[in-house]
UniProtKB/TrEMBL annotation:
<feature type="region of interest" description="Disordered">
    <location>
        <begin position="72"/>
        <end position="125"/>
    </location>
</feature>
<feature type="transmembrane region" description="Helical">
    <location>
        <begin position="30"/>
        <end position="49"/>
    </location>
</feature>
<feature type="compositionally biased region" description="Basic residues">
    <location>
        <begin position="116"/>
        <end position="125"/>
    </location>
</feature>
<protein>
    <submittedName>
        <fullName>SA1362 family protein</fullName>
    </submittedName>
</protein>
<keyword id="KW-1133">Transmembrane helix</keyword>
<keyword id="KW-0472">Membrane</keyword>
<feature type="compositionally biased region" description="Basic residues">
    <location>
        <begin position="81"/>
        <end position="90"/>
    </location>
</feature>
<keyword id="KW-0812">Transmembrane</keyword>
<dbReference type="InterPro" id="IPR048110">
    <property type="entry name" value="SA1362/YqhP-like"/>
</dbReference>
Length: 125
């Protein structure tokens, strides 16, 4: 039922387009241009809105952190890939061994000196 309604609408649209093409082609071209312009404006607004979603500096910071994490921890194989390969080969999957990571230097921490002996004067009620 739904497909017959769809085909009827498509056939009527085809007849309407051919009638408009033969009776008034300039009007048809103007309408098509107007619809294309309207769709282009909507698309441009969407692209501007979508490009502002992730902050560019935040996106760069995330990519940098992901790159550092991959370099530090390696690229581990996911469990789903291991299961798929085990099913295909018919063998039991081998347990995953974590790669040995060499730790770099300890983080650079600094002590901030302050006035620890001086206490604030507080009002007592």
């Amino acid at each position: 039922m739904k497909m017959t309604v769809f085909y009827i609408v498509v056939v009527l649209a085809f007849f309407g387009l051919t009638h408009a093409l033969f009776t008034d082609p300039s009007s048809l071209i103007r309408k098509i241009f107007t619809y294309a312009l309207f769709a282009g404006v909507i698309y441009a607004i969407y692209r501007l809105w979508a490009s502002r979603k992730p902050n560019h500096s935040e996106q760069q910071a995330f990519k940098k952190a992901a790159k550092y994490s991959k370099k530090r921890y390696g690229n581990p194989v996911s469990a789903s890939k291991v299961k798929k390969t085990a099913k295909q080969s018919g063998k039991k999957p081998l347990p995953l061994k974590k790669p040995l990571t060499v730790r770099g230097d300890a983080p650079k921490l600094t002590v901030i000196e302050g006035k620890k002996g001086k206490k604030k004067k507080r009002m007592s009620l």
